[in-house]
Every structure is written in structure tokens, then in C-alpha cells.
Amino acid sequence: MRLILIFFSLIYLYASDLEIVKYVSNQPPKILVEYQNLPYALQRILRLDSKIISHYVVDFGIENHISNIKSEVETDNYKGYNYLLRLNWTNNQLQAILYDLHKHVTLLYKLYNASSYSVYPFVIHALSYDINNKLGFDDVGWIKQKIVYSIYTAPKEQDIFLADVTLTYRKKLISGGLNVFPKWANPQQTEIYYTKLETQPVLYRYNIYTGERKRVLSSKGMLIVSDVNGDELLLTLAVDDQPDIYRYNTINHSLTRLTKFAGIDVNGQFYDNDKIVFISDRLGYPNVYQKDLNTNKVSKLIHHGRNHIAVSAYHDNVVLSSRETNYAFSPNTFNLLLINKNTNFIKRLTYGGKNFLPTFSSDGGTILFIKEQRFNSKLGIIRLKENKIFYFKISKKMQSFDF
Amino acid sequence: MKKRLMMAVGIVGFLVGCGSQPSLQSSQEQNNSAQQAVSQAQPVETDLTDNTVVNVAKDSVTQQNINQKLASALSQNVVHFDFDKYNIKQSQLPIVQNVANLIKDTKGNFTVRIEGNCDEWGSDEYNYALGLKRAKTVKQALIDLGVDAKKLAIISYGESNPVCTAHTKECWAKNRRDNFTLLP
């Protein structure tokens, strides 16, 4: 009997240990938020950011108003929480203090200034970025980035907007006529390239703060900036009525034709320093190809499936929009697939609908894309490691975006 | 004639991609040429008699009428394409022939722009290229039918210029098309 009791006690202890380990490894740290003055809209974005980032949880608790955010922290009052975040929003300025309740140290004490109330989403995104950074998680710099996107307003009418990643802040930048394919022109995100379809397509560089617009290029037929790498642009243009990929240097104005195929070559992306990936229909259907810019060798990048209409690459990973049905007279399905080009690992990222323009974040951990619906669109955010997708709806059809 | 037209369309595929030198103009180049144009501009004195004025006016009115008729006739011709294709279907060949006749039968200096369009399926960048290929195929067919290449220009609107916005198979078919516009 005694032996049996000892045996069960050992099993119980072992199981308890296992449970503790599981708790520690799976539970994200909890942050209690206290504030002096924080409009609900800002609270909403802070909650939203913690869900999208998925590294920590913010909790506004029950009684979260305090008279002074600098008052002493009584750690005994915050059992069950790892960190305490205290905020004060006054005169478009956010004061933030992040306190480690276990180590009893202040991790962050910072002021965030907003030029006006309307830009509060960017202020909260900056705070979320800092919190994530201070807690030592993988970088989420993309959450602070601005988004430019174009939407259909009427036939031959498209406007370009500026927004944050949750599309909470929206400002119309350019309207009147067909304004398409906006692309950030610099890492500081102060200027964009976009194409305006006048008598022929014209590429402009536009400063989002001053409204200054410079004409860069014009071409017959088609002119789109597909990728920007410093002073170099990858363009899809049709110098002789033929859509091919060109490299354009904005400093010395040199233009180099990179593809020479009689069919369709589009969507060029800089890749691996000395390569480009692009979409081509050279086998009779659109698929992903790569070109080595040193050897000029063109090869098929992905051997899985057919009809890939958009691509984005990050190191060995490639995400593409793949047409999985081929109906002329009924709705087609375009899903996003994540493929490792070395291991042929394939992961389906979306299930059904029309999913276009997948774009990797600069750290490769997040993909933004457009989910098109009947009369509107959603901006999708895929968190790859966290295995989560978030959608932000707009009432019109989104044509293109960049972040 | 039909046979000839089909042969002409057939060789389009071979001709597609035979590139000429890039003819892009950068903003800098354009600015330079604009400055040259300004500096070269000299006042021109011309002694016009009343008759000359009347004749010129008459001619311009006549040309305007011709252009209006051509623009109207061109707008009634639409070439439709199959899903995700840019080759001209047999059924669309008479329309291409009709457009060729209209252009060849009209005197004067003018440019006809062939506008390629797509349905809503596919990524926008790919659709712009597909629309361009549709415009280019018809342009080449018109050249093969004897139309002066200098009178033709092409542009792609991708899926941004639908004539039908319902989400039906009839609408998608209507939007996969080339339009013809007389440029001023």
C-alpha cells in the first residue's frame, strides 16, 4: 500500500512539474494598464496592437484610472501581472512608463508627441513597438510603418491614401484621374512613387508632407514601380509596347532592360542582392521565375503549381498568390502559399477567396496582403510564427499598397 | 480577305517582342527639350489674305467633322477576348478588319489609341500587362492589315476601366476588351 502511495505521489509531482513548465512557456506576459487620461480610441489601438503583435497581453483591469502616473508602484497590488504600463495623454502628448513588477525596475519612460490628435494611431503603434522591444521579443518595426494604398472610386478614377497598418488613420493624398501603384520612395517614408495614367502613363515622385510632385519618367503603354531599393527601381514598362522588367537608376537616369520575353513579365522584386524574382507567362501560364543579374540566367523559382500571379521573397521564403481554379465564367480562388525554395516546404496561408499582393515585412516575420471581396477589400496581416491572420476592412476596392 | 486577315493575325505572335530601342524620356531630358523649344521659338510674321483665312477655317471644320465621325465609328467597335488570353479570337477578326478599314479610309493626321482592359480576376499589375498585350496584339493585326503604325498608340487600363461592374460572367466577358479612341 505504501509503495503504491509513493508511486502515485511521484507521478503527481512529475505531472505538476510538467504543468508548471507548460504554463511558463505558453503564457504571454501580462501587462496591466493604468492611465490618467486616455481616450477610448487610443485604448482600442493599444489592445489591437497587442493582439496583432501576439507577444504580450494588455489588460485594462477593473479600476484603471489613477490620479498621478508617477505615483509609487505597490507591487503587491498587481499580483498576476508581469508588467505595469502607466499612460497619460495630455495636449496630444503621450507619457508612458513601463514597470517590471518582478524585477522592480522601470523599463521605459518616454514622451510621444503627436502633431495633431488624428495621428494617435501612429503614437500608439510607436508605444507598442517600444514595449515589444523592451520585453525582448522579435522585432515588429513594421507596426510603426505608414501604409500608402490606392482605391477604385469610379471607372478611370483612383485615389491614393495614407494610413496606419490598422487603417484607423486615413488621409487622402492624391485624387483626380487614375493614380495607381503607390510605392514608398525612401526608408523614411516621406515620399512615394506612383503612376498617373494621363495620355500615357507618367511616373511621379510625391512628397506626402509638402505635396511637391516631380515627374520622373513617362512611357508608352504601361509604367509601374514594382520595387524600390535605394536609388534603384524595378519597373514594369513597355518601351516598345512590350511589358518587360527594367532597372532604373534615379541618380544617373540609366535604364537597363532585365527581361526580354515576348509574353508578359511583371512584378519584379529585388532578391538575394544579385537576383530578381518576377512573374512571367513564358510557359503559357503565369509563374514565378528568378534571374541572376550576374549570369543573366533565368530559371523557374517554384516548381509547385501553376498560375502564380504575384510574388514577394524574403531570403529562402517566397510567398505567392496562386490561382487555384481556372473558370472563365464563375468565381476563381486565389490563395496565398508560403514556400521555402530550398526545402520545398509549402504552407497554405489563406483558404478561399481572392488574396492578392502578398508583401513581406522587412524582418520577414509578417506578410501584408489584399483580400478582395465583392464590393470592398480587406488589408490582411499574417503573423507567420504566431500563426494568426488579422483583417482590416475598407469600403472600396483596394488596388495596390505598400508599407 | 478573311484569309489574309487571319494570316496577318497569325504572324503577330512572331512579331511580338521584336523590340526597338527604348524611347523613354526622363523628366530631365524633357525639360531640356522644352527649354530648347522655348529658346528656338521666334516670332513668325505671316501676311494672310481674307481668302486664306476662309479656306483654312473651312478645312479645319471639314477635318473636325471627319474626326467626329471616325471617333464615333471607332467607339462602336470593341474587340473581346477570352479569359486570361490576349490572342484575337476568330469571331473578333471582322471587328479588327472594320477598324482597319475605318482608319485607312480616313484622311488626315490623327492617332487612334487602342485601350486594353481586363476583368476583375488576377492581380492588378498582371492585369495591366495582360491589357497591354491585348492592345498590342490588335495593334499588330491592324499594322498587318495595312494601317500606318504611326497612327496607332496603345495603353492598358488593367481592370480599372470596367464597362460593367456587376459580378457576373456576362460582365466579366464584357470587360475583357480593347476599345478604340481617337486622340485629339
The CATH class of the domain at 24-141 in chain A, by name, is Alpha Beta
Radius of gyration over C-alpha positions of chain B, nearest whole angstrom: 20 Å
- Order of strands, widest sheet of chain A: 2-1-3-4-5
Extended strand count of chain B: 5
Strand content of chain A: over 45%
Span between N and C termini of chain B? 31 Å
Question: Quick one: CATH superfamily of the domain at 79-184 in chain B?
Answer: OmpA-like domain
Short description, anyone?
Chain A is mostly beta strands and 403 residues long. Chain A is 13% helix and 45% strand.
Walkthrough of the structure:
Chain A is mostly beta strands. Among the domains of chain A are: 24-141, Rossmann fold (3-Layer(aba) Sandwich); 145-162 and 171-218, no CATH class. Chain A has three helices and 29 strands. In chain A, strands 2-1-3-4-5 form a five-stranded mixed sheet, with helices on one face. A four-stranded antiparallel sheet of chain A has the order 8-7-6-29, with no helix packed on it. Chain A is globular, with a radius of gyration of 25 Å. Residues 9-24 of chain A have low confidence and may be disordered. Chain B is an alpha+beta fold. Chain B has a domain at 79-184: OmpA-like domain (60s Ribosomal Protein L30, Chain: A, 2-Layer Sandwich). Helices cover 51% and strands 12% of the residues of chain B. Chain B has helices at 2-10, 12-15, 27-40, 50-75, 93-104, 124-144, 169-175, and strands spanning 25-26, 79-80, 111-116, 152-156, 177-183. In chain B, β3, α6 and β4 form a beta-alpha-beta unit. Residues 9-49 of chain B have low confidence and may be disordered. Classes of the chains: A mainly beta (403), B alpha+beta (184). At the A-B interface, β9, β12, β17 and β25 of A face β1, α3, α6, β4 and α7 of B.
